[in-house]
Amino acid sequence: MKKLTFSSLLFIIYMNGSAQHQETDSTKHIEAVTVSGKGKKRMETDMKMSVSVDEFLASSESISFIKRGAYAWEPLLNNMGMERANLTIDGMHVFGACTDKMDPITSYVESNNLAAVDISSGQSGNMHGATVGGSIDLRRRSTSFAERATWSGAYQAGMEFNNKQLYNLGNVSFANQRFVFDGSASFRKAGNYSDGLGNVVNHSQYNKFNSAVGMAYKTGRLSSVRVDAIFDRAKDVGFPALPMDLWLSRALITSAAYKQLFEGGVVKAWDSKIYYNAVEHYMDDTTRPENLVHMDMPGWSTTYGLLSNLQLQRGRYSAELQLNMYENLSIAEMRMYPQDRSNQTMFAYSWPWVTTRYGGLSLNNNWALSDKSQVNLGGSLGLHNNHAKYVEFNWIFHPDAPQERTRVLPSIHASYQLQLKNIHLSAGTGYGQRAPSVSEGYGYYIYNSFDRYDYIGNPNLANEVSYELNGSVGYRKEKFGIDVKANYFHIDQYIIGRILSLGSPMNYQSVGVKGYTSLDYATLFNLSLKGDYHLSHNLHWDGLLTYARGQDERGGNLPFIRPLSYQTALHYSRKNLGIQTSLNGDLAQVHFSPEFGEDRTAAYNIWNISADYRFVFKPCTATIQVGVENIGNEYYSTYADWGNIPRMGRNIFTSLKVAF
Amino acid sequence: MLVLGLLIASCTKDKTDYEAERDDSVVEHVDFKEAATIDSNGYSIRIEALNGTFYKGYNPIRLKVTGGGANGNANVSAATFLPIKLSSTGSETSCPHQHHLSYQPEDAYFSGYCVFTEATTNAGVWELQISFAIDGKMITARQAISVQPQTNKNLNMTTFTGSDNEQYIIALIAPQKPTVSENELLAGIYKFNKASEPTDNPLAAAYVPVTGYTLQLDPRMPEPSMGNHSSPNNKDLVQDAAGHYRGVVNYTMTGNWTLNFIMQNNNGQIVKGTVVPDDFTPGVMGVKSELHIDILF
């Protein structure tokens, strides 16, 4: 987990560009490593001005995206989808309300209410619950108590010319000895974007409002309470790759936490939180007159939860123990309208009121064997329970399925890290299980517009069992650093949709019915190579190469595996001026999965450039930035773009940020 | 913040009340109520049907005799039931029914069924003729009744002539109120008994239940929006011990469905029905078998 916190720091710094000096970069690394050995510390680092959460995540080497349009990209961690990863906000489980995964929880936050993102790969991500691929924890901004009453804040405004996106982001914080307030609000509105040939991609607009408030009160010298709420509303969001758009989605994410620190003794901190969140998501196809069938597809997802975390430390040993409990109710409906509207409508549940309850205990231990080496050993044990209120829907395909099912989800992981003079080595292994997601277990005729099949869940699916190996080697000398990371997953009972000989499609665009089934096993291999070099005091180069391969038990390709991709960037900074240019792209996708509706995606190469300048007029700092993405106006789509929808063509962006 | 939270915690659109919506679209009758009473020779014959109404199609029937020392029906025997349809020209026909009613000792009533082939119209009225024996004497009574159209399409029926030139009736018996799920489908199949020898009472044997047939089932949603959608895991209807035809139909969503049938006789020959295409054809009204019954829930 440590090295990934470290890497997320790295990309924050990368996004920050010239705002940071290189010397501080390396100091930050070391800080982060030592700090995360003891536990976690809030990062006060700010992100680059104009990024969305999606763009921010995209700069991590372990994350790729499935894109259905310009908005709400579905993150893939280690080339695995959301159901294989734990996506949490400050450790809270939030589940999207869209059966088509159009509202990953990353779409319900905004960059100006986040402080950082913790990415943990594989079983080391089990702190917040059972996982296979790892965890992505979005950490909200939370200002510390201050000696003197202080106000701070920032305002950002900007425009992207390609899709006429306008945004206004503002946040303000107040802190004194006993009280902290954080608040933020943001508005983004974007029109349709144009592809590299200058054609407008219809239904790619979006409109998002996000606000967050947090208040903390110091109840004692070493204790505090904190309440937080996020309200997010997206309206009129187009999904060009889908036959329908989003009319409205809303999320309310709330929590109340109590934190107690301890002096002396083994227990260092106890942090407990109760939370509630409600997500609603309403699709709309009235904007698509070409659709033959009008249908409503509302979805609701409500989660209550509790987490309690203890941090222990004694000498060179530190540990973290966390209790996670949550209950989620997922409901999704579909109502199809007959062509003669006087006839009765047709109704079914695509999520038949599925309740998921989870309770689990996670433990992570860290021993610093010496100044140079340390061992991590952790595990978790969870109980996972599903109950479908209208299980008779599922019985149509699986007549013997029980209405309620409880699963035990064990997980264990171990790793060893060694830091020699210039070389950093790590090796780890893990074992873990996950339960099928609501869609995989109980989904009912969920239309997937990528392969154009209706998907049927199977309540009888066995747990996915993952065996994992990972390792990394790094070399760093003053001006030069290189890091190689690899992981390998062997996943038994890998869950995937396979064509059913039963039934016939329900959604009119669909070509058939697929059922979620378990493969005997599948394997996934991820490799990344990262390097950086300080050419001079002002000029800094970094590069990244990633490769992944996913195969089923017969050697066939798994879908949504990123082809060989690269990214290389040069950063120049002098005084208050920063200039960055980057080149990124994928090679052709040769290992595609036709069975899953994939075709060969051609290689592409995108060149971007941006410049920023910082003015200081006390107490404010203003930064303006101008840049161009996709300078060559390349017409391309990536391996994970649904329906091969072309990506955005040349885009000029400008932004202004004022911080105090 | 709490107030704000409560304000926005309420949902924008209400969830569908699935159970209430099903109740609205189909009314299920489970209680037997008095549908007709015939007073004859000091006895009162009470005929009960679901909801106290005779409907076109399949009706389960209960009969109770009171008065005149008929103590709890125990000493009533050999009750018969005969529905008679009088046309405007005065001719008499009947319909599929159980002529000799079965006695249910625990609840002390006689049970049977009747498949009214038409609702009462100006051109045709229905009468019931009931006979029973009590204390060594035979009592027969006859009275006009009213048969209402069946509004629940799940109890529809169809009348047709097979390739063997016989007249058949298929009447749905259950489920009255299907759900989106696996439903046990129950139907009665009856044949016009044209070979019946002249007897005292030719009407009583006008129709006989057919035995050993098979009703192949292919349920589909005919609505153009649904593109000839079908469901998996259905089972053809075969005769059970009670003489009914029993199978399984899966309804994948609410709405209009067509039960497409192919009826095979006990030699496996097709008596009626055609194979429907299984292509997915969005925007086109689904093709129906020449033997089918439409339902709706």
Automatic annotation (TrEMBL), chain A:
Subcellular locations according to the entry: Cell outer membrane
GO CC annotations on file: cell outer membrane
Listed InterPro entries: Beta-barrel_TonB_sf
Location (main, coarse): membrane
Signal peptide segment: 1-21
Keywords annotated in UniProt: Cell outer membrane, Membrane, Receptor, Signal
Protein's name according to its UniProt entry: Outer membrane receptor (OMR) family transporter
Origin species: Sphingobacterium deserti
From TrEMBL, chain B:
Stated name of the protein: YtkA-like domain-containing protein
Organism from which the protein derives: Sphingobacterium deserti
Organism placement in taxonomy: Bacteria, Pseudomonadati, Bacteroidota, Sphingobacteriia, Sphingobacteriales
